[in-house]
Amino acid sequence: MPLLSSVSLRNLPETEEFPFTLPLIKELEPIIFNKNITFFVGENGAGKSTILEGIATKLNLPLAGTASSELDPALESARRLAQYLSLRQTTKTTQGFFTRAEDFIGFVKSIQRQIAELSFEIKEIEETWTGGDINLATKYIKAERQELFNRYGKDLDAMSHGEGFLKFFLSRITGKGIYLIDEPEAALSPTRQLSLISLIRSKAKDVDAQFIIATHSPIILSIPEAEILEFKEGKINPISYHETEHYQITKAFLDNPEVFLREL
């Protein structure tokens, strides 16, 4: 059973301030989550990311690689929206996170900064130590650095972007929680998208993790046990995988690319 079962809006303010000008927000019906994996699909500007960010802010989920949701300037409109969101949860939890593909870069820099600071501290002790057991003096600092190496790898930046992105998910999806992800395909090759599918399916089943993902990828959308919600013309409605434009256009193109290319 999903940890987050529904999202609705109440007592909206009369204002011309974004995001309250969006047709979707003005007439939002309650969003019901029936499964542990839910996809948001629709054109850019349809409101997928706005709702996702609002939920993340309302839940006060940690953000991957950036400031907290209370400080991130990019989430100012999400904070305004969150004031009017009503969430129904079957179980209260603070486990989970919210991430956008671009947050991975900030995540890498944050981990590298921590490793660099620990390495500098170790070096400084080794160069200035004058008495006693130096191994004892550096033991806990080295152990903290090694923990970061073990969890994230010694050189995240040297990994392919997709490999590092997947390693991030493996290290952070540790149990039952709510995981909100905005367009993960931006950092993943088709092969890596298949790896992400495997990870999401196993975590949803084995630890009862809940995923709400905004995506344009027909590969990621193919998870059979997921529910797909389409954002279109200010409404949100369930849609089957084969009915999505993502599937239909991709299949039509792959079946006969020459036709599409001639018409461009």
How is this structure best described in words?
The protein is α/β, with parallel strands linked by helices. It has a single domain, classed as 3-Layer(aba) Sandwich (Rossmann fold), CATH 3.40.50.300. Helices cover 44% and strands 17% of the residues. A six-stranded mixed sheet has the order 5-6-7-3-8-9. Helix 7 links the parallel strand 6 and strand 7. Helix 2 (48-59) crosses helix 3 (76-82) and helix 6 packs parallel to helix 7. The protein is globular. The mean pLDDT is 87.
Over all CA atoms, what is the radius of gyration? 22 Å
CATH architecture: 3-Layer(aba) Sandwich
Structural class, from helix and strand content? alpha/beta
Order of helices and strands: EHEEHHEEHHHEHEEEHH
**Gross geometry:** globular
